[in-house]
Amino acid sequence: MADTVLLGTGSALPHQRVTNADLARRLDTSDEWIVERTGIRARHIAPPGMVTSDLAVEAASRALEAAGLAPSAIDLIVVATATPDQTFPATATKVQARLGITHGAAFDVHAVCSGFIYALTVADALLKTGAHKRALVIGAELFSRILDWDDRTTAVLFGDGAGAAILESRERPDGEGGSGILAATIRSDGRHGPLLQVDGGPGSTGTVGKLRMAGREVFRHAVTNLAQVMEETVARAGLSFADIDWVVPHQANFRIIEATARKLGLAMDRIIVTVDEHANTSAASVPLALDTAIRDGRIRKGDLCLLEAMGGGFTWGAILLRI
Ligand code: COA
Questions:
Q1: Model confidence at 150: pLDDT above 80
Q2: Would the CB of 259 count as within 6 Å of ligand 1?
Q3: 220 lines ligand 1 (CB under 6 A)
Q4: CATH number of domain containing 8
Q5: At 308, is the secondary structure helix, strand, or coil?
Q6: Residues 7-50 pLDDT 10s
Q7: Model confidence pLDDT, tens digit, residues 157-171
Q8: Best label site of 33, 186, 253, 321, fewest CB within 10 Å?
Q9: Cα(230) to centroid(ligand 1), Å
Q10: Using an 8 Å Cβ cutoff, are 63 and 8 in contact?
Q11: Centre of ligand 1 from the C-alpha of residue 219, in Å
């Protein structure tokens, strides 16, 4: 039996930090409103000329360094993004080329804010079949490029960033308990697509489009779907919430994180929160939060972490990971 174990993580943020007060200078909003409704205080925004693969490569390089590996050790790259550099080729193949890797396979996964959970699930399956040995899984987004900067109901919620994880397939010695990814669950329900979408695309308008969201509706679905998929994932591993050291949630809104925790009876001091500084970075949000908490020493080797996310589609999912 093979386990998919985590070897290292990395992340990257654009230099420019934009506060709520900065946004309030050009939009009819305020720091008080944004903090009270979302918990967001700041976000990082990419400069003109930066592309998604720039942040992806930076995060990947840090993850490789943390894992003590050269890029040549990687034979699978999966990038989760809804804001690729180009419609094609895949951002993953651009990352592959920039890391100097010419073997294995690289492709993108598109599940918006749940993208990293989907990408990890796909990589885990490919590693467990034995088809690949070591995977670089990245969530990278430049949501600033698909925001309508005149729409205060969405412009204040998102930011740019990237996070990466290196995973390896390892034979499990007889009689030992599992390590690494213990359970992964992905779900979707396409009926809710219009509630959170981009109003354009290459096959419809021929434009990139801008993000549109029915925030209140999305909020309601998010809490229900996340609580369900978290319960299902923990149960499938034969564990209970009492066994979990840390929850690493999608960082969309502090109130969603809090409401989900309350529904499941989880203490807030076991939940990693970075939404205040990163805002919602879509597919980058979970790996950014994971890397932040590993680097600041909160999440340690051996800890049991529950990763979760929900996004446009709707898509949602959870992963139980022994660090
Ligand atoms: N600044 C000031 N006022 C704002 C505002 C802003 N940035 N955005 C909206 N408002 C106003 C609205 O226009 C509305 O005014 P009105 O009552 O005069 O019409 C009022 O605030 C309340 O708006 P509403 O949308 O009902 O607020 P809310 O409490 O639902 O909070 C969200 C809005 C977007 C913060 C909240 O719905 C949310 O977080 N939803 C989930 C979004 C999300 O995270 N999605 C991603 C999941 S992947």
A1: yes
A2: no
A3: no
A4: 3.40.47.10
A5: strand
A6: 999 999 999 999 999 999 999 999 999 999 999 999 999 999 99
A7: 999 999 999 999 998
A8: 33
A9: 26
A10: yes
A11: 10
